[in-house]
Amino acid sequence: MKNVGFIGWRGMVGSILIQRMLKKKDFDNINAIFFTTSQYGKSTSNFNIKNKHKKLENAYDFKKLFELDIIITCQGSKYTDKVYFKLRKIGWNGYWIDASSNLRTLNDSVIVLDPINLKYIQQKLNMGVKTFVGGNCTVSLMLMALGGLFKNNLIDWLYVSTYQAASGAGAKFMKELILQIQYISKNIPNLAYNSSYNILDIEQKISKQMYSSSFPKNYFHIPLINNLIPWIDKKMNNNGQTKEEWKGQFETNKILNTNKIIPIDGVCVRIATLRSHSQSFTIKLNKNLSIDNLTQIINSHNKWVKIIPNNFDDTINFLTPAFVSGKLDIVVGRIKKINIDKNCFSIFSVGDQLLWGASEPLRRMLKLLI
Ligand code: NAP
Questions:
Q1: What's the CA-to-centroid distance between 8 and ligand 1, angstroms?
Q2: Which of left, alpha, beta for 84 (phi over 0: left; psi -120 to 50: alpha)?
Q3: N or C: which end of the chain has fewer CB within 10 A?
Q4: Where are the domains of the chain?
Q5: What is the pLDDT of residue 317?
Q6: Choice between 193 and 341, residue whose per-residue pLDDT is larger
Q7: What's the whole-number average pLDDT of the chain?
Q8: pLDDT tens figures, 39-58
Q9: Cα separation of 328 and 333, whole Å?
């Protein structure tokens, strides 16, 4: 059995990865060794996993890492930067599977999303590539939603507005949003039930609480509750994009291994949902397709796509983060031609960014190697 090291299993992506692996019994076929950057030496007895080592190992112990056949890390880019290059330099020749972004730009890495690029992954495996990286969450969810249009080379360009959940930034951020919700509800008790309060007075009280000095905002820096943040990741030195926005075009084209670059741009926005990302696409096709034809192409691409009819009831019940969270479904709806151009469509999609947007492609890559 292969020795597989798990790093970052306690975070958002890692804990969903472990949940999915348990559900699919993936641990039955590997020898699992758990590493940590903060708790080494502690027992792993609370994990209900076969074939695991008894103690948490130090994630910076290069001797221990060197013994592994496969490393799967959901720890983040800082860890990857500190460990990956040094490990390769000292001759480690195992498979590295990574949720973080830094290795996605390497020439000899493959961004994995097998319902889209299985052939390419297999081709690179046969060529001896050993570094496989999960894509950016919104990019992977977009490709899963619109895979049929990409596969049939129908897209001229694509513009996206994202609505990204707090958990997309990591466990500490998600917890902070929950603390912000608690703070407001504790400090503004029951006012909405009291008919003597004017609704605008309540809004004023909430706004005041949001900017009080004890409001929890260590990670987001500002209140996300009752708010949004139209900025994700650092600024790029190009045309005013953030790195999250820049990834759209770079990663999509790398995953598709395109000859001709498909132009993609957008605005990425953090909103006050806990889990699952939503995206609104404006797509210019190179053909004048009917809505039925386009819907059929999208629907037949993969079994996880679920078309939501363009009506009020279905939209509010099923085309939402609340419905999708915890599911592998990629819901696609609000499909309409836009008034401006007969080849332009507008489409809304929601997917769980911790599943298809992060852990599921990594789990499936690991299975492919096993
Ligand atoms: P995360 O939740 O911040 O977890 C990363 C590590 O932080 C954990 O493994 C843990 O390491 C440590 N940690 C510190 N305090 C913690 C706490 N209160 N709860 C849990 N863990 C805590 O990060 P993540 O969101 O899983 O992201 C991991 C990587 O995947 C990042 O590079 C990210 O960019 C990428 N990614 C994330 C998403 C997403 O939706 N979140 C989607 C796609 C890609 P120790 O146990 O060693 O202390």
A1: 6
A2: alpha
A3: N
A4: 2-135+359-369, 139-169+232-358, 171-228
A5: 98
A6: 341
A7: 95
A8: 887 777 666 676 566 789 99
A9: 16
HSE at residue 143, side-chain half, CA atoms within 13 A, is: 30
Decide whether any atom of ligand 1 lies within 6 Å of the 14 Cβ.
yes
pLDDT at 39: 84
C-alpha span between 171 and 268 (Å, rounded): 19
Using one digit for the tens of pLDDT, what is the confidence trace for 247-305?
A: 999 999 999 998 899 999 999 999 999 999 999 999 999 999 999 999 999 999 999 99
Residue of 137, 268, 301, 344 marked active site: 137
Catalytic residue among 74, 268, 277, 301: 277
Whether 331 contacts 319, CB under 8 Å = yes
Q: What is the pLDDT of residues 97-118, one digit of tens each?
A: 999 999 999 999 999 999 999 9
Is the pTM value of this prediction over 0.85? yes
**What pLDDT does 21 receive?**
96
Domain at 2-135+359-369, CATH homologous superfamily: NAD(P)-binding Rossmann-like Domain (3.40.50.720)
- What pLDDT, on the 0 to 100 scale, is given for residue 193? 77
User: Among 41-50, 147-156, 205-214, 224-233, whose mean pLDDT is lowest?
Assistant: 41-50
Cβ–ligand 1 contact at 38 (below 6 Å): yes
Instruction: Check: CB of residue 357 under 8 Å from CB of residue 140.
Output: yes
Q: Looking at ligand 1, which atom is closest to the CA of residue 80? A: 32
Range 139-156 average pLDDT:
98
Active site residue 53: no
